[in-house]
Sequence to fold (470 residues):
Amino acid sequence: MTSEELLDQLAAHRTLGSAPREELAWLAAHGTVRHIKAGEAISEPGRSLDWLFVVLSGRLSISVNQGAGRRRVMEWRGGDVSGLLPYSRMVNPPGANVAEEPVVLLAIHRDQLTAMIRECHEVTSILVHKMLDRARVFTSTGLQDEKMASLGRLAAGLAHELNNPAAALERSASLLEDRLEDGEKATRILGAARLTDAQLEALDTVRKACLASPSGGVLSPIQQAEREDAIADWLADHGVDPGLAETLADTAVTIDALDRIATSVDGPSLDAVLRWAAAGCAVRGLASEMQEAAMRIAGLVQAVKGFTHMDQATVSEPVDLMMSLTNTVTVLRSKARGKSVAVTVDIAPGLPLVRGFAGELSQIWANLIDNALDAVAQGGRIDVTATCERRQVVVRVVDDGAGIPEDVRARIFEPFFTTKPIGKGTGLGLDIVRRLVIHNDGEIEVESRPGRTEFRVSLPMADDAGGSAK
Fold:
């Protein structure tokens, strides 16, 4: 391709063609025409981005690995520009820029950009506008990807959290029918026993003992087995079915209480009284377990509803950080449990409301706590605190992980910068956190050393934010 032919192509270029011809001539004189084969990469993640590419013909696309395989996020054709742009802070490309078909482009090395900015004002202006457009596309795509990733983590954690109470409901419901039948049989036997008033009073005593909460806390498996054996021996000694011991052992009934009952009721009547009491205790126990499981499910649904704020408008409003932080920790509990990580939430009494976007604040806490969970070792610890300091509400997320190396600490908020392996992190989480904090009129700071990393988010109190929605 001759110099004149290259200049004609640049003059017809969709992006740069409006620039003065002398500036296009400068580009032609200081660039190199390259022919790229289909499937060849002109830039790859992890490698320094050193070239501005003016695409003359063909088609390029950039794909980013989001952990579930590569996904195409942007495409360039003849008439577009790609690669390093003037004033761009990008050092490493976020993904591989690959030719989808044979491509012809003009490549200009970064060493020429300073001179280009000085000599080609119109070209520089066009390229800066293109850089801003590209940043908006990557930001929008990155935010959507991060939201989808958060949704995936939320769905996985929620499914795990719901599994236990749902299984408990199913188990209790399946047992309830048998226990009701046992209760009906015991009632008929009790009715046939024709108890006296004194015996009925004793019956009421054992019923109250069954309904009372066990004292002494939760017994260990060995202690529970020993208690069940002791009750079984007592039942056998008094001519009562020892099979009732398992049910009675789960109640507050003591051996002394059984001895007092035996002084008023004996023989077949004692068997009828204890059988009826055991059946009633079993039914009530199952009902209590079902109620607890249902309340657990309702609590999880409420936490997710509060975390996502799906019933609230996306406007700036007073936000209760106690609910916001607690809901976030709840939806991430399964991940914490999987690593045996202790997560504490300490909210200062009387903490004032902050003004912000409720859904965005939840996203901030989710990203910070999720990153902390990745950073700590098995059995680690994360402390989340919120206090009022100098007319601001300050939220701290502190973990006892290995810390952030000093040489990367200054870059952690840069887009696409990540210390995680390829496919494990996009480098967007902390960039999104920073932008969301700014959008909520807040500030974010980080301090880190081995064994202690603190992310500190300062937000305006609701009565100091002027009350204006954004």
Q: What stands out?
A: The longest helix spans residues 121-193.
